[in-house]
Design goal:
InterPro entries: Cobalamin_Transport, Transcobalamin-like_C. One of its GO terms (molecular function) is cobalamin binding. Keywords: Signal. It comes from Alosa alosa (allis shad). With about 140 residues, this protein is an alpha+beta fold. It has a single domain (about 30-135), classed as Ferric Hydroxamate Uptake Protein, Chain A, domain 1, CATH 2.170.130.30. The protein has two helices and eight strands, in the order αββαββββββ. It has helices at about 1-15, 60-70, and strands at about 30-40, 45-55, 75-80, 85-90, 95, 100-105, 115, 130-135. β6 and β7 form a beta hairpin. The structure holds cobalamin and 2-acetamido-2-deoxy-beta-D-glucopyranose (3 copies).
Length: about 140
């Protein structure tokens, strides 16, 4: 904690010493795409969205921002002590254990669509990446 504060103070001092100005333009928001795909519930909730996030930010942050400017996109997460946030519900459709359904999270960062190896609270998308929430069965 103290070390962290010290580091922050040193960084601030250095920035002032060099007369540097850190502006939002130097660290612009990053655009990503979110696609909602559902071929198995009776609701068939689909959607293609664009959203902005801070560089290096988490997917969940991009999702939160998306809800703030797009009323069509909705989601709910639950917190798991071991793995962070679990994506329970998207656009009104929830996964459930009885039907073995869940929202799979896929990304095209490798050039093809692959499931992410972490959840929405840990995953860090890159600029222009496409994230797919696909309602599916296990
Ligand atoms: C079975 C399983 C699932 C099943 C759970 C079915 C069920 N309800 O029983 C399903 C298929 C739903 C699943 C989904 C996902 N999973 Co999974 N899953 C597992 C697995 C193989 C075993 C979990 C288990 O049953 N343990 C036994 C019980 C007794 O322990 P438990 O801790 O209570 O188990 C619960 C949690 O693990 C939870 N869970 C399962 N996966 C995930 C993922 C996240 C992000 C969260 C928050 C919770 C969670 O569901 C279990 C049952 O309630 C583990 C790997 C492992 N060897 O442990 C991966 C694992 C937990 N899953 C993982 C991931 C990444 C996912 C997905 C994000 C994959 C994706 N890209 O879509 C999704 C979740 C998407 C979402 N909607 O948020 C990672 C989590 C890593 C991390 N730090 O985030 C693990 C560790 C696998 C890995 N990559 O190494 N998963
Ligand atoms: C789902 O999230 C919304 C906000 O996005 C919240 O208003 C609602 O209460 C949540 N529902 C559940 C069941 O957690
Ligand atoms: C992912 O898809 C987007 C279009 O939505 C594309 O611009 C981008 O290049 C793709 N990424 C990779 C690594 O293929
Ligand atoms: C999405 O889920 C559907 C239904 O389970 C499945 O047929 C399809 O292959 C999945 N798409 C991807 C990209 O995994």
């Amino acid at each position: 904690m103290a070390l962290r504060l010290f580091t922050v103070l040193c960084f601030t001092a250095l920035v002032q010493l060099l007369g540097l100005q850190i502006t939002a333009e130097q660290y612009p928001d990053v655009e990503i795409h979110i696609t909602v795909q559902d071929k198995i519930s009776n609701e068939h909730v689909q959607g293609n969205y664009k959203t902005l996030m801070r560089p290096g930010g988490i997917l969940l942050g991009a999702m939160k921002r998306l809800t703030e400017c797009n009323q069509d996109f909705k989601y709910n997460v639950t917190y798991n002590n071991d793995y962070g946030y679990y994506l329970e519900k998207v656009n009104g459709v929830a996964g459930n254990d009885a039907d073995h359904t869940y929202w799979q999270i896929l990304s095209n960062s490798s050039g093809k669509l692959d499931p992410t190896n972490v959840g929405v609270g840990c995953y860090i998308p890159k600029a222009y990446e496409t994230i797919v929430f696909n309602f599916t069965k296990w």
